[in-house]
Amino acid sequence: MKINTNFDGGSIEIVDATDNSNVQLKLGKENNSDNTQWFYFECEASKNKSHTIRIVNAGGSSFPKGWIDYQAVASYDKKKWFRVPTQFDGKELVIQHAPEHSVVSYAYFTPYTLEQHQALISRAKQSSLVGHTNLGISSDNNSIDLLTIGEEDKNRQKVWLIARQHPGETMAEWFIEGLINRLLSGDESSKKVLQKSIFYIAPNMNPKGSFLGNHRTNSKGLNLNREWDNPSRIDCPEVYYVQKMMDDKGIDLFIDVHGDEEIPYNFMMGGHSSCQLSKQADEFKNNFAEANSDFQTEVDYNTFHNGNVGCCGSGCGKKNLSKATYYVEEKFKCLSLILEMPFIDNANAPDENVGWSAERSYQLGYSIVQPILKTL
Ligand SMILES: [Zn+2]
Question: Which residues have a beta carbon within 5 Å of ligand 1, which is an ion?
């Protein structure tokens, strides 16, 4: 089997690919850290013949529990993605699939490449409602796109959303695409929300990490969501420049969009520092569940991990200002929420063909306008 990862977001290492019934691969390390989880590769395979692809180091990845009940995604055209039979024995992740075409791609989740990101920015910029700022360019040619949607007016609420601090959490950008399209749709809710507010949106906080096929870190090996207390302009320009813009514009509502490797539900956490913010967070979550049945309020880091902290760590009750939601809540004294979507599926509404998907992430983003409108 011929395997190719030489493209935007590609990542896997070949151990031995000579036998299609026993292809052995390894999750690749990120370019400057030991994290492993994301994979995305293209194969030249034998049409309609069963292939067994073993990812032999899956048990030692950053989130090994994320492989339990997990099914890999596959595509013949890199547009339509579907789940394929996948098993995990605690050590190896084994994909067994008879592709219907001779070229097939496999990935951890439906990719959202840097090229797709750039196309999203270009499309959005065609609207007269949208402004675009390129925040900071670092030595590795890393720059962050910030979209503003709506009119600048000191009486309007400032709504900030950022996504893909962890670049492998591609569902976060599918979510943002849904939100942007809703805001530009001109429907009643989007008109109302833009009368009251202006949106500042960073659809991809970690474009270089996305391009490199990293799951957790930027090109310098830094986990952006551990750098908010003191980001380096040189090594962490992504957070440094976004913070500068936040200081300049102000924030009334902040949402940091992520994906969780293990928890098969959509959930939010936030409102840690006061009863008032905690109540606002609960109201937001209830309104979100009303707007989209894929969102729920029963399971979160605390209930799922019995008090232990999950991927992005809003569950511990302590302030950790290195994380975006805590930093923003502390500094701007506003409602600051983390959103997690699953890699696996929504266990309350499982779909065996696609699991949790790009389309469902998009729809969730489309529907978050409703709880935002009720909060303003
Ligand atoms: Zn994350």
Answer: 166, 258, 311-312
Distance 338 CA to ligand 1 centre (A): 9
338 contacts: CB under 8 Å, gap ≥ 6: 255, 256, 258, 268, 269, 270, 312, 314, 324, 325
β-pair type (13-16, 51-55): unpaired
Q: Cα separation of 71 and 10, whole Å?
A: 18
Check residue 73 and give its pLDDT. Answer: 98
Instruction: Tell me the C-alpha distance between 331 and 335, whole Å.
Output: 11
Q: Supply the pLDDT for residue 307.
A: 58
Q: Give pLDDT tens digits for 261-296.
A: 999 999 999 998 899 999 999 999 999 999 999 999
Interval between CA 165 and ligand 1 midpoint (Å): 7
Which one from 115, 173, 340, 359 is the annotated catalytic residue?
340
Distance 164 CA to ligand 1 centre (A): 7
Which residue in the block uniquely carries the two structure tokens 């399209």?
A: 181
In angstroms, the CA 55 to CA 88 distance is 10
Distance from residue 111's CA to the centre of ligand 1 (Å): 15
Residue 285, token pair as written in the block: 């979550």
Is 13 known to be catalytic? no
Query: What mean pLDDT is predicted for residues 87-112?
Result: 98
Residues 6+ apart with CB under 8 A from 175: 163, 257, 339, 341, 361, 362, 364, 365, 368
What are the tens digits of pLDDT across the range 35-49? Answer: 999 999 999 999 999
Around 263, how many Cα atoms within 13 Å sit in the side-chain half-sphere? 26
Ligand 1 mean position, distance from CA 361 (Å): 15
Give the torsion sign (CA, 11, 227, 176, 338): positive
Contacts of 111 (CB under 8 A, 6+ apart): 9, 40, 78, 170
Q: What is the pTM of this model?
A: 0.96
The residue type found at 75 is S
